[in-house]
Amino acid sequence: MHAVQVGEALCAAPSGRYVVYLSTRCDGDAAAGMARLRHAATRLFRRWVPPDESQAEAEAEAEAAGAKAEGAAGSIPTMLWAVYYTQRVCQVA
């Protein structure tokens, strides 16, 4: 698993915000790779809770995914949105 965080210095996000890229090899099993990425995201970030959803529902979902809420809620960054995709790795001879 690889993680790269970029911010305003690279014009990737507004001041005080960051974009985090997570990547992992799938080795032929894209579903397993996606599961690893989602698991890592739930361990690293709190999910943003829309106004029509309760915080208790979001916390129950995170707990079911194996996330540990360590420390104060403010110490865990909030994930505003996420995109998951697969990419074929090719070698050029």
Would you identify the regions where 5 or more consecutive residues have pLDDT less than 50?
none
Q: Measure the end-to-end span.
A: 26 Å
Q: What percentage of amino acids are in beta strands?
A: 15-25%
Summarize model confidence as the mean pLDDT: 81
Number of domains: 1
Helix content: 25-40%
Backbone structural class:
alpha+beta
Biggest sheet features: 2 strands, antiparallel
Structural description of this entry:
The model has no long low-confidence stretch (mean pLDDT 81). The protein is built from two helices and four strands. The strands form two sheets. Strands 1-2 form a two-stranded antiparallel sheet. Strands 3-4 form a two-stranded parallel sheet. The chain has one domain (2-79). The longest helix is centred in the middle third of the chain and has 15 residues, at 30-44. The chain has helices at residues 30-44, 55-64; strands at 2-6, 19-23, 46-47, 78-79. The two termini are 26 Å apart. The chain has 93 residues and is of the alpha+beta class.
Write the layout of secondary structure elements.
Layout: E1 2-6, E2 19-23, H1 30-44, E3 46-47, H2 55-64, E4 78-79
Parallel strand pairs: 3-4
Antiparallel strand pairs: 1-2
